[in-house]
Amino acid sequence: MRIPYWNISYGILIDAVALVAVIVFVIGLHGHWKRIRLGKVRIRSANGDHPGKIGPVFVYSLLKNGILGAKLYKKIFTGIAHGFLFWGMLVLALGTSLVVFNLLFGLPVFEGRFNRLFMSFFLDLAGLLVLFGLLFFLLRRWLPPERLITPKERTGFGVQIGLLATVIVTGFLVEAIRIASTGPDPYSFVGNFIAGWLPADALSAHRIFWWFHGLLCMVFIAYIPYSPMMHMVLVPTNIALANPRPGTKMGVLDFSSFDNDAEEGAEEEIPTLGCASLADFTRKRLLDFAACLWCGRCHEVCPAAITKKPLSPKGVMVTLAERLAAGEVEDATLIDDITEEAIFACTTCTACLEACPASINQPKTILKFRQNLVMEQSRVPELMAKAINSLEQRAHPFFGTGSGPKDWCKGLDVPLFAAGETEYLLWIGCSVTYEERAQKIARAMVRILESAGVSYGILEESRCTGDPAKQMGNEFMFTELAQTNIDEFNELGVEKIITLCPHCYNSFDRHYPPLGGNYEVIPHSVFINRLISNDKLALKNSLERICYHDPCYLGRRNLFFNEPREVIRKVGQLVEMPRSGAESFCCGGGGGNYWAEEVGDRINQVRSKEALDTGADRIATACPFCLLMLTDGAKKFTEEQKTFDIAELVAEQLT
Amino acid sequence: MKTLIVEVIDAKRIGELVTVGRIFGDTPDIVALGSGDIPGNYNKAYCSDAAVGSNLIDGLVELIKKEGYELVLLSATTVGAEIAGPLSVRLGAPVLTEIIGAKSDMTVTRPIYGGKAMTTFKINQTPAILTVRRKYFESAIAEGTTTPVPLAGAAGAIRLVSEEAVKTEGIPLDDAEVIVSGGRGVGSGDKFTILRDLAGILNAAVGASRGAVDEGWAEPTMQIGQTGNIVAPSVYFAVGISGASQHLAGIANAKCVVAINKDEDANIFKRARFGIVEDYAKVVPALIQALQEEQ
Amino acid sequence: MHIAILAKVVPDYEVPTADFELTDGRAHSRYTRMIGLYDENAIEIGVQLKEAYGATLTIISYGKTQDVTVLRKAIAMGGDALHLVLGDADDPFVIAANLKMAIEQLGNVDLVLAGQQSADMDRGVVHSILAGMLDYPFLPQISTIKSEDGRWMVAQAHENGVRRLEFSGKGVLSITSSPKNVPRIPAVRSILAAKKKPVEKIDGIPGTAMPVAELSVEIPKMESVCEFLPLDDMAQTCKILLSKLREERYL
């Protein structure tokens, strides 16, 4: 039977050292907290309570991403190696704790089957797996993939990997020496194996190795907060506190509270709009920056980074993490370090957020910088400035449009929304109204709705939801536009809205409720699917091969993946693109980048090529911006008009 | 109708005003800004060395009242803008600017809303002042020259410190038969070079839309449009120009507009005779190539 | 230094030609209203002068009460006060007389700036008539302004180039657009602050209109059928274009 502290005198001292190690650990942890505490306290989220939330903790998310680390497995080898490391260490830690309990309370862990299975076999297996994991990560640091080193590589892993590896190896050695002296223990298969190779006088080294192993382990533990290994605490904490709803929440600011006509001095001070320095961010954001391991998965999927724009989501995190570590929280030159170009190159596709195993919210950070640039400093790229100006002047961003507000329905008899009578408001949205190519989406949808006999109507005046303003960082403009819409909707008693554009959907569904606008919103592709399911549409199948591009704001951000696909299957044969579903690659039009002159490779051309390479007869999408961007992108490769909206494809197949 | 022209010594500009003057009556008299003989044959001709229109007002008022002129014609240029308003106050005379049409019954037409609409006015009192938009009237051929008499009474409230004529490389816009013009779609100042190359082969002038000028890619003197140069070439190449009505106002009398723009919805295509919906960077080099092959 | 900037609120000047319609000879009331483009350039220069010399800026406009919300943008850009003369006349003499009244009420205006021409009537004459009425020197098409030893040093964008001019005392300048006076985007803070600034409303005077009669207002028909050339072979297309231009004797 194994005896704890076998051959060791004053073995209990190691526990005293452990205490010291833990104290150093706590001090280090506190250091992180001290820095994170410099952020603002987060205002209670206005977006309602999330089911499955206990206090501030999102339980399911914590279990799935924090404990199981589900996202890590997207890169299967890294996932498995990390799994080995994580679970292996967990088992080993449990094992060591059990030894302590045995010592303190006489817990009979060294007896019988438990001893054989767990204390002997599983612990050895765990140690071995940990070693494999460590080997993988050591090799990884030695021959790093691009994402780990671009734009910068995080240092400090080597030391801890080395320390831990040495701890494990010496642990096995100590076990082996014990086994060599006390007799073979086939369940401790690793120790057993090594024991066979030891020289006869190995026992004399036992004590040295035992203390060495123990002390090194304490050093490892104490050093954790001063190394990237702090992610053990920071990452699960971050995941637990991060709202798992995809996409950015971007809570609304109550500008009206700054507007009161009360006496001078009684007005509320307008806080800094957006963020310019670290201190402007909330503590949760600072936790994001501290938790980031610079793994680069976000960089790999970012459309801007892939097309060599100045933006790298990892780069942003790196800059912020370094500043935070240096304690430079008041410095507002932060934005210029990251550069205005980078901040505006983001298309808000949230692929980075999706890819991040630590639930870090890169898009929100970038958007916060944008808000500061736009609302506080009035720094905006020129074309975006014109779009914002147009929104301010005409309630739509499409400056220079050649279309009047009613051109899209010329020749069509489209009913107006009648309060109390019409069931669905068909919200046209600005892009469909003012962009000639996109107008056909509305025309097709009208045909579909008429064919299905749906009670629908449009508004007299066409307006924008304000989404482009929000995306470009102008929350103020968004709130103004949204309030106008909400006032009109509430006056008309609007309850259900069909949108033709996922950006409109996202605005209504996510950002309007805090402003007082609560409606049932349905994206048009989903509505069409409903009509099909209820046999309201007679369709023939063209049998054409149609590849589907998931719009970021419909798919990844709002989880509508299946409905558009079902619709496509009814009118053709669905072909998937290499990057689809939640991994869909952005068309490049989001984040206000529809109004931008791109430098370098164009995102829309990259995506168009991907679509054309599937060899499909048509390319389908469910968003007017995607339609416009991909139509333009395809021009580089083909003369044919291949890109269509789902509504257009369905309207074509109506019998 | 006793008419007086006030203009710089430029045969084309004077000629256009003479044509307008003849609509209302005989050949007008003239006050020329500058020195030297004035092209054309005039009953009375005066000159002034006033550097700025503002400095000329007193002298003009005296002359107009003394001689009883009923109509004063200016071109819708800087000179016209400087003189028309203050003169109208001093004379108590109605003033209508940017005239593009005139009839002897004292009705004139002028554009509003950036050229999207036209108003017709009847002038009910003389003296009256009109500023005439360039290139809308044929320039009367000048026969002979007239030596002017210096005009008295130029005040000096505003002093001209210096004048920099912007050197136009190549053909000046004013009389060019062919013009190659770039807008925002060109993308940068450097990229204007290719337009200059094209202009070189075509023996054309280079112009720009207000958008390109505001970006700093072209000199303001190259601006074509309602508030820039009004041009009337045979062929006008609109490269990367969207075709806002204010720009179209500058080329209303261009005979053939060739539009190159990658946006098929651009308004310019509603004015153009030939359209190429393509990135100009692909078209212009090919066009240069085709022209070189011709030679 | 007190600078008055004249701003006019006009119907959307970017309404596409195809969508443009008139009621009673004026742009349809459905078009959104905004500050004219050149007026914004003038406001921008005014704000630059405020930043350079500590000038006070008063925005003066002639129009309707509803236009106050639009004019607040001028305050947000940097204007200190807004004086609105209420009236709906279209005639340049009448408008100028009303603006003159507003300026004289202010009393100590050193310089009056205005946009080169309004984006609706495109006359570009009200400011120079105003100058005549005030008996101030007038210069159009100004792109930059500096003050040196009590003299105004200005640059004028002339047809042929740039003229640098100077004068002292008061004056009226009309402003043209240039890369140096691109209108700034007001910060949200300024927009919110502008909402609280008081607006001085002045009753307009009838004035005397010009003795001209507006006979008609029409929208000219744009008749042009564009021949779109093929895109697949650009070399061929260019040859086609050249031959057509020569055939029809344009080139």
Task: Give the helices and strands, then pairings.
The complex is a heterotrimer of chains A (655), B (295) and C (251).
Chain A: H1 13-36, E1 53-54, E2 57-58, H2 59-67, H3 76-105, H4 112-142, H5 146-149, H6 157-182, H7 189-195, H8 203-223, H9 231-241, H10 283-291, H11 297-301, H12 303-306, H13 313-325, H14 334-338, H15 340-345, H16 351-355, H17 362-376, H18 382-394, E3 424-427, H19 430-434, H20 436-452, E4 456-457, H21 467-472, H22 475-492, E5 496-499, H23 502-511, E6 520-523, H24 524-533, E7 545-549, H25 562-571, E8 573-576, H26 603-612, E9 618-621, H27 624-634, E10 643-645, H28 646-652
Parallel strand pairs in A: 3-4, 3-5, 5-6, 7-8, 7-9, 9-10
Antiparallel strand pairs in A: 1-2
Helix pairs in contact in A: 1-8, 2-9, 3-4, 4-6, 6-7, 6-8, 9-10, 10-13, 20-28, 24-25, 26-27
Chain B: E1 3-8, H1 11-24, E2 29-33, E3 38-39, E4 45-48, H2 53-67, E5 71-75, H3 78-91, E6 95-99, E7 101-103, E8 107-112, E9 117-123, E10 128-132, E11 145-146, E12 149-150, E13 159-165, E14 178-182, H4 192-202, E15 205-208, H5 210-215, E16 235-239, H6 245-248, E17 256-260, E18 274-276, H7 280-294
Parallel strand pairs in B: 1-2, 1-5, 2-4, 4-12, 5-10, 6-10, 14-15, 14-16, 16-17, 17-18
Antiparallel strand pairs in B: 3-11, 7-8, 8-9
Helix pairs in contact in B: 2-3, 4-7
Chain C: E1 2-6, E2 9-11, E3 22-23, E4 26-27, E5 33-35, H1 37-53, E6 56-63, H2 68-77, E7 81-86, H3 92-106, E8 111-115, H4 126-134, E9 138-148, E10 151-157, E11 161-168, E12 171-175, H5 188-194, E13 199-203, E14 212-218, E15 227-228, H6 234-247
Parallel strand pairs in C: 1-6, 1-8, 6-7, 7-13, 8-12, 9-12
Antiparallel strand pairs in C: 2-5, 3-4, 9-10, 10-11
Helix pairs in contact in C: 2-5, 3-4
